[in-house]
Write a structure and sequence with these properties.
Blueprint lengths: L2 E3 L6 E5 L5 E2 L6 E8 L7 E7 L5 E5 L12 H15 L3 H18 L7 H10 L5 H19 L11 H38 L3
Antiparallel strand pairs: 1-2, 2-4, 3-4, 4-5, 5-6
C-alpha cells in the first residue's frame, strides 16, 4: 500500500487506494483516483492524478503546502517556507517562531526602524505603510511567536499547540498577501488597462 504524508492530518500514512479510475485527459495517459488516509483520526480522501501506463503520481489534491508565494521577498520566503514545513511535521512552536521571523523579515523589507519587532510594527504604522488593522494583526503574530520562544508565567499555557500554529500560518498568509500580492496585482491591472487604452487609441 502506498505511504505518503496526508495533506489533511499531516501524518505519514498508508492509503486505501481508490478502485475507481476516471480518465483525466483524452490526450494524456492520466487517470484520477480517490485514496483514503488510513489514519483512523483522519480517514480523509485525497484526489490522485497518476500516469496510467507507469503508475507514477503526477499530482495530488489538496497538495501538502510547503512553498510560499514567489512574490514574497527572499527573507520572508525562507522563513515562511520553514514555518510551513514545521506545520507539516507538527512542530507547532517551530512553526510559530518561523512565522514571527517571517513577519520580522517583512518589517525590515518594508523599511521599518526599531530594535525589536514591536518597535518596527509601530514604526510602519506611524509611517502609514500599514493600516491600524494590519498593525494589530502584526502584533498578534508577534505575541504568538513570543509565546513559542519564552512561554508564559502561567503553567497551563507554556507551549503553542496545533490551533496556534494553524491560526498564525493563516494570519501570515493574509498579511503577506495584503502587503505583497495585492499591490502587485493592482500594478499589473493598471498596466493592462493602460496598454488596452493605448491600443484602442484612448
Amino acid at each position: 500500500m502506498p505511504s505518503r504524508r496526508c495533506p489533511h492530518c499531516k501524518v505519514e500514512s498508508s492509503y486505501q487506494v481508490g478502485a475507481e479510475r476516471v480518465r483525466f485527459s483524452l490526450q494524456l495517459p492520466y487517470l484520477l483516483r480517490l485514496d483514503t488516509c488510513r489514519n483512523e483520526e483522519c480517514a480523509c480522501v485525497t484526489g490522485v492524478v497518476f500516469d496510467g501506463s507507469t503508475g507514477e503520481i503526477v499530482e495530488t489534491f489538496p497538495q501538502l503546502e510547503s512553498e510560499p508565494d514567489e512574490l514574497f521577498p527572499e527573507g520572508v520566503k525562507i522563513a515562511f517556507r520553514q514555518a510551513l514545513r514545521s506545520l507539516n511535521e507538527k512542530i507547532w512552536d517551530g512553526c510559530v517562531l518561523m512565522c514571527r521571523r517571517a513577519l520580522e523579515e517583512a518589517m525590515v523589507d518594508l523599511g521599518a526602524k526599531g530594535k525589536v519587532l514591536y518597535d518596527k510594527i509601530e514604526d510602519l504604522a506611524n509611517q502609514n505603510k500599514i493600516t491600524p488593522d494590519l498593525r494589530d494583526w502584526a502584533h498578534e503574530g508577534r505575541l504568538a511567536g513570543k509565546l513559542g520562544a519564552h512561554g508564559t508565567e502561567e503553567e497551563e499555557k507554556r507551549w503553542n499547540d496545533e490551533t496556534d500554529a494553524k491560526e498564525i500560518i493563516e494570519f501570515c498568509k493574509w498579511f503577506f498577501r495584503y502587503i505583497y500580492i495585492l499591490p502587485k496585482q493592482l500594478e499589473q491591472r493598471r498596466q493592462r488597462l493602460t496598454q488596452e487604452a493605448a491600443s484602442n487609441g484612448g
